Each structure stands twice: as C-alpha cells, then as structure tokens.
C-alpha cells in the first residue's frame, strides 16, 4: 500500500528516494520493521476474538496412536485449534500495507501462505468434523506437491535470468552446482519437506512458533542481504535482485509468530494446527530457495530437521527390529516420556534454535 501510494505521487517518491538506502527504492529496512510490528499488533488485537470464535467451533481432539501420549496430553483436550487463521490474517494485512506487489517474490510468498494455509485448514477441518485423523497421507502429499510445483515453476522462470539463480551452493567454500530445469523438482522437495518438518514439530505449547521466530529472523536477514548488491558481494553470497522485498513477508511472519506465541505459550490458549504450521514451513523453504541457501536451511532449521529425522529413524528402526529407537517420536515426545516438564523441553529447543540461527548467519563470513 505504501509503495503503491508513493508510486502514484512521483514528487513524494523522489523525496523518499533521497533518503532510502541499499537496493530498495523506498525504505526497505523500515518497511520490514513496520511489517513485523503490524503483524504482531494484528495478532494481538484479533487473537482474543479469533480464540473465542475457534473455541465455539474448532477444538483439538487428543487422539494419537499412543495411549501414553494421550494420557500425558489429556489436559490439552478441547483447546481451540486452527489458530493459523489469525497468523495468516496478520501476515496478509502487514504485506498488503508494506509490501510492493509488483515484486514476484511478494506474490509467491503470499501464494505459499494462502495455498498451504488453505490445505492445512481443510486437513484440520476433516480431523475435527469427522472421525478421521485429517486428510489421507497420499491426498495431503499430492496437494502439497501441486502447490510446490506451481511455486517452483514460477520461481524457476524468474531465477533462470539471474546469475547463480539456479545454483545449489555449498555453505562453506562457495562451491556451486547449476541445477538447470531440475531446480523445479528440487524446489518441490524443499517446500514440501520444510512444510512437513514444521508440522511435525508443532506438538508442544509454543515449540514450533518459538523456533520459527529464530529461524524466520535469520532468513529475514538473509533475504535482505541477498537483495543488497554491496552486502551480498561483501559476504560472497548470490545477489538476487529484489529478494529484499521478500524480507517483508518474512518479517511479517516473525511478527505474527510473536503475536501468536503470546497465546500459544504454556499453557496454550490456542493451537495453530496445520492451518498455521504448513504455510509458515512453506515460507521458510521458499526463503531458502529465493536466497539460494537451501543447504544453510538445514542449519537454520536444525530443530525442525532433527524432529523430522527422529520420526524417519523411528519408523525405519521399528520396521527393521520391531523395537523403538526412542521412547516416542518426534523427539520432543521422547523427552515428555522421560518425565521432563513440557515448558523445560520447549525452552531448551528454543535455545537450540537461537544458537543454530546465529551460527548460520555467522557462517556467511567464513566463506
């Protein structure tokens, strides 16, 4: 909205350009900050109303395959869920106000938020309105692949015109492999993998939302740096013209996560459900694809990676030996089974996520 107004009033735009910095024409740094603050305020203002509305319609059903886990989590029964609705609302309002909608990255970001958010809402609705545990795995995966394919194809056509736009870059040493058209398949893998990884992590009060604050903040900085020719050159990372605009979407997501965490911290007043976890996970993956930092995503999102790997290894080990590798997967449930307090587990995972985000940003200069 701000950018649109400035473009409609040329003299005002000229005045703004005299004071702007970097590769953005109009106060990019300020707009990122304003997007974060706006989404936080929207989440805080509309959160209580959304929770009351969700409480009368959509309440969590504690019904996992583990009886012991159901007993531990029994106190969460009937907690309002699908809180991702007001996360999406907060991000959307902030981006509408502060984003430049001429940017392909803004449009792709919002497509990921709305597309994966709608899929998550359908999955939650099926779980809450029927006796099914959500959509079938195959149905959900196919829908994710279709959404990821559409986004990856559009990003491919945009990035093939950019130097290093299709390169897979090793974080240390700067080694690069050009993916060519295989970028589309790679993009699908990253988007679906990231989306599901955050979804798996969303099992304790404040766990996924808190970790996303740190991971999202790291990629907000990376998107800004990648879109600044001087800073990108200084850090020897790919310069992706216009990627700084995507930092507005990420900044809005961080603000929305902070606002949501206000209500989601232990004991949670609301859960985000797949309505929230799928789109924010997809946004994180999209950030990595845009900035060409997919391998660095493994470090930034290390908590999500470990949670996902714990599930994969648990299934593999059980099928091979008939025994469980850990008490219960994902990993956070293992610590619950060991008697650790939920809040202690969550805070320790937050600390790990913060350290990983700092390490990832610090590693940029090591190259």
Summarize the structure in words.
This protein is mostly helical and 367 residues long. The protein has one domain. It is 70% helix and 2% strand. The protein contains 16 helices and 2 strands. Helix 5 packs antiparallel against helix 11, helix 9 packs parallel to helix 12 and helix 13 packs antiparallel against helix 16. About 2% of the residues have low confidence.
Q: What's the SSE blueprint?
A:
Elements: H1 2-8, H2 10-19, H3 28-55, H4 67-72, H5 84-98, H6 104-129, H7 137-159, E1 167-169, E2 176-178, H8 183-201, H9 207-226, H10 229-235, H11 246-264, H12 273-291, H13 294-300, H14 302-321, H15 331-337, H16 342-366
Antiparallel strand pairs: 1-2
Helix pairs in contact: 3-5, 3-11, 5-6, 5-11, 5-12, 6-7, 6-12, 7-8, 8-12, 8-14, 9-11, 9-12, 9-16, 11-12, 12-13, 13-16
């Amino acid at each position: 909205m701000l950018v649109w107004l400035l473009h409609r009033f040329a003299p005002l735009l000229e005045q703004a350009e005299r004071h702007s910095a970097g590769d953005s024409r109009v106060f990019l740094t300020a707009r990122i900050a304003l997007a974060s603050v706006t989404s936080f305020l929207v989440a805080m203002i509309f959160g209580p109303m959304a929770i009351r509305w969700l409480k009368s319609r959509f309440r969590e059903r504690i019904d996992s395959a583990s009886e012991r886990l159901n007993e531990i989590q029994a106190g969460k029964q009937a907690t309002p869920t699908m809180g991702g609705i007001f996360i999406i609302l907060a991000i959307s309002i902030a981006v509408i106000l502060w984003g430049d909608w001429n940017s392909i990255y803004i449009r792709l970001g919002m497509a990921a938020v709305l597309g994966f958010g709608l899929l998550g809402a359908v999955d939650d609705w099926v779980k809450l309105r029927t006796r099914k545990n959500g959509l079938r795995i195959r149905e959900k995966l196919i829908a994710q692949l279709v959404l990821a394919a559409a986004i990856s194809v559009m990003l491919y056509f945009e990035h093939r015109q950019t130097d290093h736009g299709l390169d897979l870059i090793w974080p240390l040493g700067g080694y690069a492999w050009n993916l060519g058209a295989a970028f589309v398949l790679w993009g699908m893998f990253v988007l679906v993998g990231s989306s599901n990884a955050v979804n798996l992590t969303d099992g304790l009060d404040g766990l996924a939302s808190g970790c996303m604050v740190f991971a999202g903040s790291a990629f907000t900085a990376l998107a800004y740096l990648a879109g600044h020719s001087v800073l990108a050159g200084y850090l020897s990372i790919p310069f992706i013209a216009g990627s700084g605009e995507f930092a507005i979407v990420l900044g809005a997501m961080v603000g929305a996560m902070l606002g949501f965490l206000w209500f989601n911290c232990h004991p949670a007043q609301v859960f985000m459900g797949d309505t929230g976890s799928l789109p924010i996970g997809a946004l994180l993956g999209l950030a990595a694809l845009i900035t060409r930092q997919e391998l660095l995503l493994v470090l930034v999102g290390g908590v999500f990676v470990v949670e996902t790997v714990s599930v994969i290894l648990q299934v593999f080990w059980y099928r091979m030996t008939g025994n469980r590798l850990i008490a219960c997967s994902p990993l956070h449930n293992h610590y619950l089974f060991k008697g650790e307090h939920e809040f202690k587990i969550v805070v320790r995972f937050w600390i790990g996520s913060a350290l990983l985000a700092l390490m990832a940003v610090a590693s940029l200069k090591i190259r």
